[in-house]
């Protein structure tokens, strides 16, 4: 996957962010995107091929893998990265619209969220709410799909066409568990940063009013 567009998007929004917002961008770049590209993607690259059951019944291994891993961890993580970053498009589109309009009035463009008018501030706050909402939704989704952020060493499967209860083994479970915990920790950190920035902007706007 080419992540260039996502990087450019976050870099553009960074110009209109507060200090807390810039920390959020740094966390997404360094502790989520780079970790995904450099390390996490390779760990789950052959997870289906390395999933083994102690029976050679045709179809049994496939249905067991689909039951315990309905969505790949790494693909769900990639979707989460995309979804929590796309609300920033609201800010980019709003700024592009305003910059184009201000050119006809020879006015200065926005400098930072603390100095913008109510329109862009409202858009910025909406993007923060959406990012926080997506983070929470994906954390709940991970928890529901994978039984509480766990990667077991052994799973027992009795789904047809398996003739009986069979033991299936997951490759590198400890390594995958570490990265899953890292995913949860960085998601929680981003939620805290988003809520902090949201509270800061609302408080600052209230004082200004």
Automatic annotation (TrEMBL):
<dbReference type="InterPro" id="IPR019570">
    <property type="entry name" value="Connexin_CCC"/>
</dbReference>
<keyword id="KW-1003">Cell membrane</keyword>
<feature type="transmembrane region" description="Helical">
    <location>
        <begin position="20"/>
        <end position="39"/>
    </location>
</feature>
<protein>
    <recommendedName>
        <fullName>Gap junction protein</fullName>
    </recommendedName>
</protein>
<feature type="transmembrane region" description="Helical">
    <location>
        <begin position="178"/>
        <end position="203"/>
    </location>
</feature>
<dbReference type="Pfam" id="PF00029">
    <property type="entry name" value="Connexin"/>
</dbReference>
<keyword id="KW-0472">Membrane</keyword>
<comment type="similarity">
    <text>Belongs to the connexin family.</text>
</comment>
<dbReference type="InterPro" id="IPR000500">
    <property type="entry name" value="Connexin"/>
</dbReference>
<keyword id="KW-0812">Transmembrane</keyword>
<comment type="subunit">
    <text>A connexon is composed of a hexamer of connexins.</text>
</comment>
<dbReference type="InterPro" id="IPR017990">
    <property type="entry name" value="Connexin_CS"/>
</dbReference>
<feature type="domain" description="Connexin N-terminal">
    <location>
        <begin position="42"/>
        <end position="75"/>
    </location>
</feature>
<comment type="function">
    <text>One gap junction consists of a cluster of closely packed pairs of transmembrane channels, the connexons, through which materials of low MW diffuse from one cell to a neighboring cell.</text>
</comment>
<keyword id="KW-1133">Transmembrane helix</keyword>
<feature type="domain" description="Connexin cysteine-rich">
    <location>
        <begin position="134"/>
        <end position="201"/>
    </location>
</feature>
<dbReference type="GO" id="GO:0005243">
    <property type="term" value="F:gap junction channel activity"/>
</dbReference>
<dbReference type="GO" id="GO:0007267">
    <property type="term" value="P:cell-cell signaling"/>
</dbReference>
<dbReference type="InterPro" id="IPR038359">
    <property type="entry name" value="Connexin_N_sf"/>
</dbReference>
<feature type="transmembrane region" description="Helical">
    <location>
        <begin position="77"/>
        <end position="97"/>
    </location>
</feature>
<feature type="transmembrane region" description="Helical">
    <location>
        <begin position="118"/>
        <end position="143"/>
    </location>
</feature>
<keyword id="KW-0303">Gap junction</keyword>
<dbReference type="InterPro" id="IPR013092">
    <property type="entry name" value="Connexin_N"/>
</dbReference>
<dbReference type="GO" id="GO:0005922">
    <property type="term" value="C:connexin complex"/>
</dbReference>
<keyword id="KW-0965">Cell junction</keyword>
